From TrEMBL:
One of its GO terms (molecular function) is rRNA binding. Belongs to the universal ribosomal protein uS4 family. Signal peptide: none annotated. The gene is rps4. Keywords: Chloroplast, Plastid, Ribonucleoprotein, Ribosomal protein, RNA-binding, rRNA-binding. GO terms for biological process: ribosomal small subunit biogenesis; translation. CDD domains: S4 (cd00165). This is Small ribosomal subunit protein uS4c. SUPFAM superfamilies: Alpha-L RNA-binding motif. It comes from Lathyrus davidii (Sweet pea). Pfam families: Ribosomal_S4, S4. Residues 3-88 form the Small ribosomal subunit protein uS4 N-terminal domain.
Length: 202
């Protein structure tokens, strides 16, 4: 299944806020109307929607998400929390959380077009797994810096990088301080339901 490129509001209406997919939000009245129209959901549908929420927020294909679930299942610790850590430490998500890209799709485009350096080297793989002490910077070219500067300027004032990241906007630089803690994940999600969904599918 390919990556979703359709109407973004359609997914927000069905799944709720997806900050990684778009900065836009549904009007409050529309949200209340959608909630009132929603019928009683089956347990399967609840798990499916949590899985879809995770997939569309991080911009993954079904195959990619399943691969992450399998990797998380082999690591010691809570599978759900490890899954979220793996997704949050992706380079495209780190750029988004730093405010250097407005959305995760935009961050993916920056990486694909070779505008981003990790520890001084160009990385053009959006799924690159960042590690503590990694330094993410814009390429030393006017176009790269302008793209990132525009995103930094348009970022909501209330939006601050989580504690596992440090942003130096003047230098177009971000620092990964540590592996993210669960409470700083940028999406309201019940990751256990996602794990349950996949455990029942296999």
């Amino acid at each position: 299944m390919s990556r979703y490129r359709g109407p973004r509001f359609k997914k927000i209406r069905r799944l709720g806020a997806l900050p990684g997919l778009t900065r836009k939000e549904l009007p409050v009245r529309r949200v209340r109307r959608e909630q009132s129209l929603s019928s009683k959901k089956s347990q399967y549908r609840i798990r499916l929607e949590e899985k879809q929420k995770l997939r569309f927020h991080y911009g993954l294909t079904e195959r990619q998400l399943l691969k992450y679930v399998r990797i998380a299942g082999k690591v010691q610790g809570s599978t759900g929390q490890v899954l979220l850590q793996l997704l949050e430490m992706r380079l495209d998500n780190i750029l988004f959380r730093l405010g250097m890209a407005a959305t995760i799709p935009q961050a993916r485009q920056l990486v694909n077009h070779r505008h981003v350096l990790v520890n001084g080297r160009i990385v053009d793989i959006p799924s690159y797994r960042c590690k503590p002490e990694d330094i993410i910077t814009a390429k030393d070219e006017q176009k790269s810096r302008t793209l990132i500067q525009n995103s930094l300027k348009s970022a909501p004032r209330k939006q601050l990088p989580p504690t596992h990241l440090t942003l130096h906007p003047v230098q177009y630089k971000g620092l990964v301080n540590q592996i993210i803690h669960r409470r700083w994940v940028g999406l309201k999600i019940n990751e256990l339901l996602v794990v349950e969904y996949y455990s029942r599918q296999t």
